[in-house]
Design goal:
The chain has helices spanning 5-11, 40-56, 60-63, 71-83, 96-107, 145-157, 162-165, 179-186, 209-218, 312-327, 331-353, 380-389, 413-429; strands spanning 28-29, 90-92, 136-140, 166-169, 191-197, 222-226, 246-249, 264-267, 359-360, 373-376, 392-393, 395-397, 401-404. It has 443 residues and is an alpha/beta fold. α4 runs parallel beside α10 (312-327). The chain starts with a helix and ends in a 14-residue tail after the last helix.
């Protein structure tokens, strides 16, 4: 017998957190992987900081609760368990692309070695190494375009041609990345650094982060992860001996920190002795920040990668989000609910939508999918617009993907069932054909 969504909601230990969020009236919201909804806790922390600004003025830097001076570090302590990292390996700063630029400036060494053991093969006694210099950055053909833009521009700033020094690993089907293709690309002797997404933003594929990190490090390659589509939805283990060299992310998707929220980065402690590639006054050690010395005195750990003054009004809402996650039992509890929601959606799709021409582009196994599902259909754009008219908020990704992203904190099983029922009705009645067949071009 098919699972009753009302019964699943009644048994859901996280159901009570739905009331913590401002849900769009009369709508089913399934776009949390693009922008998470506002929670009452996030709003409260934002209004608190505004009130502190109103009443304390500049004294808020030291007298606010918590003090503005250390708000980024306070949040790093609360965020660390979600990432399996130490607080001093995290830096809440900038935004996703800026943070990638900072990490490249700090870690990319064109022509140099990767990790100290930078050869995975033995040339034998008396056989000098004739391997090419390590100067290639590996990316992938499916990642969010901003990462590729950053990689190309960084190479140009170094006086290098992206056509030669940037290698994008292709996808065989345009939807997922194969582990063997990624590992084959790692084998090239000229690779110095690799940047990959933990979750492919289109299809929702979750890469094998642990295996890829281990294999890259065995070959002496620095490896970093764009966690934008997994942080807050999938547990990570970044710290420890087997952790990656770096990571970066945004906080406005699954972590519900608000549009344009401050991003974050991770720098493994094995690299903490490195000088920041891009230096700024907030990356100076706290006791010397206002000394205005002529030469920078970097802070300890990842905090040295701060550049400018923290964006307090964009940081504050994240405190509320992290409070809710802690009260919900941590990220493992959220991951269990997320997988239950997507399992339920998959069953509904197989029963109600597959006969109507919809196919699932997301890998079905739990270890290989993130928090959202991608449905492929030639009329995906039309269905996206029709769903919005039917008060369901999905997301479209070209050329033919409809993304459905249930949030474990505010999406119910009933929401999922109703969304699929409305999509089935649109397909059966061909209502979607009343909508434009392609997005309008913006001049």
């Amino acid at each position: 017998m098919f699972a009753d969504p009302a019964a699943l909601d009644a048994a859901d230990p996280l159901a009570r957190f739905r009331a913590e969020f401002f849900l769009p009236p009369g709508k089913i919201y399934l776009d949390g992987n693009s922008l998470g909804l506002l929670s009452r806790r996030a709003e409260a922390h934002l209004t608190r900081v505004i009130a502190e600004w109103r009443t304390l003025g500049i004294d808020g830097w030291t007298e606010a609760s918590p003090p503005w001076l250390t708000l980024a570090e306070t949040i790093a302590e609360k965020l660390a368990p979600l990432l399996g990292a130490a607080p001093d390996e995290l830096c809440l700063t900038g935004q996703t692309t800026n943070n990638l630029h900072q990490l490249l400036a700090t870690l990319y060494e064109p022509g140099g070695p990767g990790l100290p053991t930078h050869h995975s093969h033995d040339h034998g006694p008396g056989n000098p190494c004739h391997c090419p210099p390590r100067s290639v950055i590996l990316g992938d053909a499916l990642n969010f375009a901003s990462d590729a833009y950053a990689l190309q521009s960084h190479l140009r700033l170094r006086g290098l041609d992206p056509a030669t020094h940037l290698r994008l690993i292709p996808s065989r089907d345009g939807r997922v990345l194969r582990l063997d293709d990624l590992l084959e690309a790692f084998a090239a002797p000229d690779v110095q650094l690799v940047v990959l997404p933990s979750v492919v933003f289109t299809s929702g594929q979750l890469l094998d982060v642990a295996t890829l990190t281990r294999k890259a490090r065995q070959r002496g390659i620095f490896i970093g992860w764009d966690l934008s589509h997994s942080i807050g939805a999938v547990p990570h283990t970044l710290g420890g001996d087997e952790g990656p060299d770096f990571a970066f992310w945004c906080n406005y998707k699954w972590l519900n920190a608000g549009p344009g929220a401050v991003g974050g980065l991770f720098l493994h402690r094995r690299h903490h002795a490195r000088a920041p590639g891009l230096a700024g006054w907030w990356g100076v050690r706290a006791d010397r920040r206002f000394a205005m010395a002529p030469h920078p005195e970097p802070a300890a750990g990842a905090a040295a990668l701060h550049i400018g003054t923290p964006h307090l009004l964009s940081l504050a809402p994240l405190l509320g989000s992290l409070e809710l996650i802690a009260e919900a039992g941590g990220l493992c509890a959220l991951r269990a609910k997320s997988l239950a929601l997507t399992d339920f959606l998959l069953a509904l799709i197989d029963r109600d939508l597959a006969p109507l021409g919809f196919t699932v582009a997301t890998p079905r196994g739990a270890p290989a999918r993130g928090g959202h599902l991608a449905l492929a259909h030639p009329d995906a754009w039309r269905f996206c617009q029709a769903l919005k008219a039917a008060h369901v908020v999905p997301d479209f990704r070209a050329p033919d993907l409809l993304r459905l992203a249930p949030s474990p904190l505010y999406t119910s099983f009933t929401d999922c069932a109703e969304a699929i029922a409305r999509l089935q009705h649109l397909a059966l009645t061909r209502t979607h054909e009343n909508f434009p067949s392609a997005p309008a071009l913006v001049p």
